[in-house]
Write a structure and sequence with these properties.
heterodimer; A: 306 residues; Jelly Rolls; 8-stranded mixed β-sheet; 8-stranded antiparallel β-sheet; 16 strands; 24% helix; elongated; B: 177 residues; mainly alpha; 8 helices; globular
Chain lengths: 306, 177
């Protein structure tokens, strides 16, 4: 096989051959099985490189989820602030205690949600949740100790199975803010989302993302794609949103606790929280399950320092 | 769209995800451009989904799906039969038959390619992945790099040949072990 055929095939699959060259290649491919196999290796490489490029692009997007928070006031997007590392950073192996009212920094906090998937009453359903208090998303199930991983809190945790058709596995919950109006009052309130993740298999780089968005409408009006796609349409629909993505180096053991802050304005009826877990590997077969546990949502009342 | 229950939907997704690479490879072998192959793949997915209710799970999904993909590709070629760049139908059928013989090797070759991409210099890897990124125009990429489009094509040809060679050597080494 000479290089001339390699060049001609590459020109053909790039649609750069003349009619004479196309017919010459066609005639040769009809009588030469080895040349036909070389042609197939080139077309196969073309498809594979396209898939590799798409996969690299998805990973790059996921790695650059900005650390931002947006809040709409009076119908305009007025507030943008990059979250500080202290407010939005990852805390490795952090130990948490139960709080209903506690002091956090220079403010008090109250608990909006604490879920460690313990009770028999916990219900998870496949697909994006459509009701207040409901959990759902990509395939997941409640498990106890598994693959040598102990739940972070209590005896059970949520296992997020890998998704064959997507890099990330996502789970969402819709939190009712209406019954928090008393605590909210008429001012914008900070809410902190905290969740802990653990991979089922070590040795791969992992990526975890927290997203939260506040809406004036009820859960039935919220579309899954607003929470699933990177930034897409969410700024047209949400009163506030925030996201935080964290990469965990291959081989890092232990639970990884991530926090996210969002400024929720008055008039917010629901808060949708999303937790994403991804094994950073382009090949679906290499993606592992991840465990999620100890998800907490707390409102923070900032008070001036004495 | 058939009213399939969740179990059927999951089963379809699982089977399609498993065979998507082989189907895309088959279509690319039969069609003259990446865009044609992608469009034919999209249309194939729709037909597979529409007919999945009638699919007998005892049958070979890949053979069933490949038959539908081949028909889609031939329909595209008939639409483009006056195009000077298109191979005749006899050759395309012959290539599809040979592609079927190599189907089992698609995933091992992809795995080998991943390793080869990791082993190559980062500059070359970034270049080849940029060239294949959705929406990339070769003349824009060449201008950004301060090259003529022709010199960029030549460079990409050399990188692709090096990758093909690396994939073959990797597979030969694995077979020898």
């Amino acid at each position: 096989m000479n290089t001339d055929w390699n060049d001609l095939i590459q020109h053909y699959i790039a649609e750069q051959t003349s009619e004479e060259e196309t017919r010459r290649l066609e005639a040769a491919l009809k009588v030469d099985d080895a040349l036909a196999d070389l042609y197939l290796r080139h077309t196969e490489l073309d498809v594979a490189l396209e898939a590799e490029a798409a996969s690299a692009e998805v990973m790059r997007e996921l790695l650059t989820v900005p650390m931002v928070s947006w809040t709409r006031r009076g119908g305009h997007w007025l507030s943008w602030r990059p979250l500080t590392a202290a407010a939005a950073g990852i805390v490795f192996g952090m130990f948490c205690t139960s709080v209903v009212w506690a002091y956090a920094g220079n403010g008090r906090s109250w608990s909006l949600l604490r879920e460690s998937f313990e009770g028999d009453g916990f219900r998870w359903q496949s697909g994006f949740p459509k009701q207040m208090g409901q959990w759902g998303g990509d395939e997941a199930k409640v498990v106890s100790i598994e693959a040598g991983v102990n739940p972070k809190d209590g005896a059970r945790m949520l296992k997020l199975d890998p998704v064959k058709t997507d890099l990330s596995s996502r789970t969402h919950c819709i939190v009712d803010l209406q019954n928090q109006q008393k605590a909210f009052g008429s001012t914008t309130r900070q809410i902190e989302l905290r969740a802990s993740f653990h991979p089922s298999v070590l040795g791969k780089k992992d990526r975890y993302v927290l997203r939260a968005a506040a809406f004036a409408d009820g859960p039935e009006k919220v579309e899954e794609r607003w929470m699933k796609e990177m930034w897409g349409e969410i700024d047209e629909h949400a009163l506030a949103y925030a996201a935080r993505g964290v990469s965990v180096p291959a081989g890092t053991d232990g639970w990884q606790t991530i926090t996210l802050m969002i400024d929720v304005p008055p008039g917010s009826r629901i808060l949708v929280i999303s937790m994403w877990a991804a094994t950073m590997d382009g090949k679906p077969a290499n993606r592992a399950a991840h465990y999620l546990d100890d998800v907490r949502l707390s409102g923070v009342i900032n008070e001036p320092l004495p | 769209m058939p009213n399939l229950d969740d179990q059927h939907h999951d089963q379809f997704l699982r089977l399609f995800a498993e065979h998507e690479a082989a189907l895309h490879t088959l279509l690319r072998a039969m069609l003259p451009s990446r865009e044609d192959a992608k469009e034919a793949l999209q249309e194939t997915i729709i037909v597979l989904w529409q007919k999945f209710g009638d699919f007998d799970p005892a049958r070979d999904f890949r053979a069933w799906a490949s038959g539908i993909a081949r028909n889609k590709a031939l329909a595209v070629l008939r639409d483009r039969k006056r195009d000077r760049h298109v191979f005749d139908e006899d050759l395309v059928n012959r290539l599809a038959d040979r592609a079927a013989l190599h189907e089992q090797g698609v995933m091992p070759r992809r795995e080998a390619l991943e390793g080869c991409l990791q082993k190559m210099p980062a500059v070359q890897r970034e270049l080849v992945l940029s060239a294949y990124k959705k929406g990339t125009r070769m003349d824009d990429l060449a201008a950004r790099r301060g090259q003529t489009p022709m010199s960029l094509y030549k460079l990409l040809h050399r990188i692709r040949l090096a990758l093909l060679d690396c994939v073959e050597r990797t597979l030969a080494t694995e077979e020898a072990l």
